[in-house]
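Structure (tokenized):
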């Protein structure tokens, strides 16, 4: 997958999160605005029924974003080049280095 495709999919998932924020906030507002135990229990029950699919969708989006970001992080890691000493030359000993 090309970096541009990865970034496009990340943005699409972030847009889903942005577009579903209001559903979560509305449910939370109903819970905290409840006056009394009966209204609180009703708000909790309604929130669970109304946003259960939204919560699953949002969890899936976050998981996918993390997977995609890990893919781009791998691309950003610096490449380390290891050079070997020629086989016919032995590494210098500490005594040779002082000379």
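Design, position by position:
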């Amino acid at each position: 997958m090309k970096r541009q495709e990865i970034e496009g999919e990340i943005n699409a998932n972030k847009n889903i999160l942005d577009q579903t924020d209001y559903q979560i906030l509305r449910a939370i507002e109903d819970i905290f605005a409840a006056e009394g135990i009966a209204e609180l229990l009703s708000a909790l029950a309604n929130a669970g029924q109304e946003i259960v699919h939204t919560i699953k969708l949002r969890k899936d989006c976050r998981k996918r974003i993390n997977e995609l970001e890990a893919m781009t992080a791998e691309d950003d890691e610096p490449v380390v080049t290891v050079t070997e000493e020629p086989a016919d030359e032995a590494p210098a000993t500490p005594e040779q280095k002082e000379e």
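Reviewer-requested clarification: Residues 78-87 have pLDDT under 50 and may be disordered. The chain has three helices and no strands.
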